[in-house]
Amino acid sequence: MDDHPGVRVAVRNLLANAQDIIVVGEGVDGTEAIQLANSQKPDILLLDVELPALKGYEVIQRIRQSEPDVKVLALSSYNDPMYILGMLENGAAGYLTKDEAPHMLLVAVHSIMQDKVKWISPKVASQVSHITLDDKTFTGRELEILRLIALGKPDEEIVRALDINEKLLSRYIGLLTEKFQVSSREGLMSAALGVISTASA
Questions:
Q1: pLDDT digits (tens, 9 = 90+) for 150-188
Q2: What is the pTM for the complete model shown?
Q3: Please, which residues bridge with residue 138 across strands?
Q4: Which of 69, 72, 76, 86 sees the fewest Cβ atoms within 10 Å?
């Protein structure tokens, strides 16, 4: 859903490269987004943050009420924390900036649908100062680490994926184990799955 025809064409062309994705519709404003969600019941809806008629977060709220199984991936020109947190905390399954879409859109869509976890790009994670889930506050980086831990990724893959060193990752894991009051990697993985499940619900 985007009010710019050029963006819709570009996104449609990107999705056409994936054999397992079928585009069932598109629209230009928040009202059409809700109508499409209700009539087509897509697995995932790509939604701009700023739309005519309704704001992105308002669209998510209404879709969650009528079609809770439809996941929403925010696709926006904005990488301001206000927009990011507004969408994520209202139930978006992920957030991606439009300039990242050419090389990350399919990754985001497949991750959300296959892994069933909240997805944010590294660029977005770097902009988010915090997000509150289940009465606990997480930084964008902590949320990304939790996502990878929930997927069972070993430390070697996490440091490569996030481009950080092992010492910094160890520090983050230590902070997260304290935050969840767990003493093992298995306990942290279980806690991470709980948070990610809440974030994607």
A1: 888 899 999 998 888 999 999 899 989 988 888 888 888
A2: 0.65
A3: 131
A4: 69
Kindly report the CA angle at 113 between 64 and 25, in degrees rounded to 5?
Answer: 65
| Six-digit token string for 109 | 């869509």
Given 83, 116, 149, the domain boundary residue is: 116
The answer to whether residue 126 sits within a structural domain is: no
- Tell me whether residue 17 is exposed, middle or buried, using C-beta atoms within 10 angstroms of its C-beta: 0 to 12, 13 to 18, 19 or more: exposed
Residues 24, 52 share a domain: yes
Provide the number of structural domains found in the chain. 2
Coil/strand/helix, residue 46: strand
In which element (H, E) is residue 141 found? helix 140-150
Question: SS3 for 58?
Answer: helix
CA-closest candidate to residue 73, choices 27, 10, 25, 121: 121
Taking CA atoms, 35 is separated from 25, 42, 48, 59, 149, in Å, by 11, 11, 15, 10, 36
Q: pLDDT tens digit string along 2-34?
A: 566 777 888 887 888 788 888 888 888 888 889
The span from the CA of 30 to the CA of 38, in Å, is 13
Query: For the packed helices 140-150 and 155-162, what is the interaxial angle rounded to 10 degrees?
Result: 140
Closest CA to 91 of 125, 127, 133, 141: 133
Same domain membership, residue 181 and residue 103: no
**Residues 42 and 92 grouped into a single domain:** yes
